[in-house]
Amino acid sequence: MSHPHHKLSLRFSSILLIIIAIAVLLKILNLGSREFWYDEVLSLLLSTGQKIAYQPPQDLPVVLADYTALLSLPPQSSIHDILETLKNLLRGLAGGEPHPPLFFLAQHLWLHLFGNGEVATRSLGALLSVVAIGSAYGLGRCLLGQQGGLLFAALIGINPYYIFHSLNVRMYNSLVLWAILSAWALLQLIDTQKSELKRQRFFTHNTKLLWSLLLIGSVAAGLMTFYFFAYWLLALAALVLVLDRQRWWLAGGCLSAGVFLTIPWVLWGTRQQLHNADLQRFSTATGIVETGLRHLQDVVQTLGIHLVLGDWISSLPPVSATVAGGVAVLVLFACIISLWHQNQRRVLSIALVLGIFPLLLGLVVDIISGKFTISFGWGRSMIFILPGCLLLLTTWVERATGQWQRPTAAILLLLYLSTSIADLGTRHRRIFHQLADIIAQDSTTPTLVMMNSTAWGHVLRLAYYIPPTLPVMLLAQKSAQLAPALEKSLSSEPTQYQRILWLDSADPVWSPPSTDAERTQVQQVLDRQFQLDKTQQLVGTMKLDQFVAHLYQRSAPRA
Question: Helix, strand or coil for residue 503?
């Protein structure tokens, strides 16, 4: 007869499996539920190998479809063409992109296989995130047993921040996979060595080889995906010293081998990237007190975004991340104290080294360099700390909550699941589809789209979502130059356009937003030949997606 506790355990494990299945289903259902955002379309441009062919908009209109062609793979009829495209991809990265090439090379291969649609391009990240969930189960089971592995995998799977990035055509999703795989491989390698010593014979040579290769490969992959993964590498090195100081040489050798594999790119690509680096995008320090508070705020906000808010931060004021981060810090501190009192020091040490130590390393580097990189991109530059932080929460639930274990786990899972579903199901992310619909209402009328932004994220999203078959020209200029450029265009071709769609961006990225005086100048130019048909507010989940769209039709000739 089955023991009641065993039945409860099986039931809870079944619930965790259902949560994991829901996490996978959410990813599949939402592959095409939202538009590419600014950075995603830039990833697409880089992955096609055509970044070096991109020319910024000038002061005369250009055919919008010319930009559309850059978002697909160029014609390739031979091996030479394929190799030339790969060479151009690497040149595009080395010429100014601040990231290593692995993500873009993988996405390039995916384009060959499935094309450049939203679902197709995002499916690679979704697939890697499913592998990450499976790897999280392996890591969690290694430390906490089967139920702990399932809980850890479930928390990873429905964490709001990770769900957002698993549906994002950027490299941050894969960093979580490389972090989990490398930590799992390292722990298994250390355990294998200890088993060998205890049994006074070889445990299994093939097993050791497998984990060694996995560790080497995941470390190299992480470093070739994102340079800040070096913080994670240092955390793994610290973990070796914490767990196996006397027999560190094998694990240390694997970490070194992973670094060694990246040397060819470092010597060729990284040197060029450093030469072209735009380090000014990381804000610099000012006064001592303000600097210290800002660094503390960066750490707190990063934890708040990773563990509580997820992509909701793109629509919330920064203070919300600070409040959420304060709650996260208190919860993590309570977990640490509780686990310490429960004498769970080995697994606590592992979770702290994997979750908190890389964050502290980043903080030290920021303080020394006078930069603020931890909070860059709402904390995504430190996304590899997410597994360690969630492992700490999982360990606390499994080892320190006693009879409240399952209710506590249920509350955590419910909070994450409801936050993620609300994010994916209620937040509007189809701005450029609306613009395409406006233009398609009269698909044969020549249209000029003019915009107060030259940022390629705005230009390329217009090109991606407005069908290239429509007769559309683009005039993109900074706010101060838009009225003169429009007047010049209308003077040289006074009857070319029957309508004009004026997009006034709230965040032009590369220049300040339009002032009232600049808007008035544009209106005065338009009023000479056109009349306002309608005005529409376009609002997405972030300021980058906020536009006011004015549709002007050519005025009837005066009698």
Answer: strand
Indicate the residue type of 535.
T
The dihedral built from the CA positions of residue 90, 94, 100 and 103, taken in this order, carries a sign that is negative
Backbone angles phi, psi at 549, to 5 degrees: -105, 120
Q: What is the pLDDT of residues 291-302, one digit of tens each?
A: 888 889 999 999
CB 262 within 8 A of CB 224: yes
The CA distances from residue 487 to 62, 477, 483, in Å, are 15, 12, 6
The sheet with strand 530-538 has its strands ordered as: 62-63, 472-476, 447-451, 499-505, 547-554, 530-538
Residue 65 in tokens: 């479809």
CA 435/CA 502 separation, integer angstroms: 11
Could you give phi then psi for residue 33, rounded to 5 degrees?
-85, -5
pLDDT for res 202 = 46
What is the three-class DSSP state of 247? coil
Q: Look up residue 291 and give its amino acid.
A: T
Nearest to 542 by CA among 299, 295, 318: 318
Q: How many CA atoms lie within 13 A of 51 on its CB side?
A: 24
Amino acid at the residue 439: I
To the nearest 10°, the Cα dihedral for 500, 504, 505, 511?
Answer: 100
| DSSP, res 529 | T
Backbone angles phi, psi at 475, to 5 degrees: -120, 105
In this prediction, the residues of the chain whose per-residue pLDDT falls under 50 are 1-2, 200-203, 559
What are φ and ψ of residue 446, in 5° steps?
-60, 130
| Single-letter code of the amino acid located at 306 | H
Whole-angstrom Cα distance, residue 9 to residue 445? Answer: 66
CA dihedral 185, 186, 192, 195 (to 10 degrees): -140
- Amino acid identity of 240? V
Task: List the one residue out of 353, 361, 354, 359 whose CA is nearest residue 329.
Answer: 359
Could you tell me which of 9, 15, 5, 24 has the C-alpha nearest to residue 410?
Answer: 15
To the question of pTM greater than 0.90 for the whole model, the response is yes
Q: What is the mean pLDDT of the chain?
A: 92
| 12 burial level (CB within 10 Å; 0-12, 13-18, 19+) | middle
Q: Burial level of 480, CB count in 10 A (0-12/13-18/19+)?
A: middle
Q: Using CA atoms, how far apart are residues 454 and 537, in angstroms rounded to an integer?
A: 20
Spatial contact of 482 and 452, defined as CB atoms under 8 Å apart: yes
Q: What does the DSSP assignment read for 420-454?
A: HHHHHHHS---HHHHHHHHHHTTTTS-EEEEES--
d(CA 103, CA 169): 9
